[in-house]
Amino acid sequence: MEKLHQSPLMPWLVWGLAAVLGLFTFLLQGSPSVMIPQLMKTYDIDVVKIGVLTSSFFYTYIILQIPSGIAIDLWGPRRILKICFLFCSLAIACFAYSNSFIEGQISRMLMGAFSAPAIISALCLGSRWFKPALFTLIVALTEFLALSGGILGEAGLAKSVVTFGWRETMITVAVLSLILTFLTIVFIFDFPQKLQPIRSKKTFKEICHETSKNFKRVISIKKLWVSGIYAGLVFSIFPSFAALWGVPYFAKRYSIPVDQSALLASTVFLGACVGTLLLGWVSVYVTSRRPLMIWGSLLSFFLSIVMIYIPGIPFEVMFLVVFLFGLISSTYALSFALADTYVTHTAKGVAMGFTNMLCILFGAPIFQPLIGFLLDFSCRCEPMNKINIYTHNDYAVALSVLPLSLLASFFLAFFIKESHRHPEDAPS
To answer: Cα(411)–Cα(146) distance, rounded to whole angstroms?
Structure first.
């Protein structure tokens, strides 16, 4: 193990495994989108409750972002990850065997709670194991892997659900979670050996007081609020559209089966994966992030208009539109790079948790059920077998939430302020 610690590949292994847990989290977030008919039949629920079921994951996920950051700062990513993903495996298994809406909702909430530290841990480990100059690249790669979970969660799980069934698919996912937990215990370490911190002689009360000060300092940074809300408005398209409502929308628009529509919807994630890699490469040469964020939200707004409201777009061309939509929307990830420059090293976990909380604040807990409500509200047709048959116009009304969110992010981007050096480097 000592030789492994000294290997130049060790930082990539430690960060990479944590980033794979972030990928796994995204897979869990969007998994119900490919099971909508089966879940509606199993739980005997309507489309509004499907939105609530899916978004249940994010209620606990969002609430626990800041506590996760605090816990990571106090006890380290390794300890937090191995405990959380052990219980996450049990929550996934409970979902697989659930028979009622309440059981499914509680299981989803537990999944969100126990997977909450994944992305924050990956970013914190990247900050500890790599040089500061590489952090924007690490953010981009972390988001690249996380968004890949969206592709696997739709295109991959959709095929499995069709072939084996939704319960069998989720049992397999639970086993995979256990395997990742074991790998976390073996390969993840909080610091490189040469940077192992000296054990603090502070009492638990003193540590809690210092953590409280860091938390108050973080939430008082206005720049962090602005960049975080920008990220939330742009990122909202992923959980609300790509991970849920895009699947039935494309199925209705092109009269295609769910696995094909899931493949098209997951192309948003594919575009974002490429986009985050491009951002990582561009960040080496372009240090100013605000112009990229302004143009990203504006172009995403126009592409959302094309995707939702322009009729007669061929199926093959829509793949290109959806891919570009995801690619350009990846500018939300720059908010994490900005957050890294706003705080000191001791508050890094809290800042990342706070930014991630704002990033996912709108899409799942608000927009997912809101789109479901608007879809149900705009429908004027008679239900068939207790299930409403929605038209393209119904989806056009409900999905208007997306371009409005992107337009708001465009105006907010002008108020983003950049800090080109870390607070540790600032003169005292």
So the answer is: 27
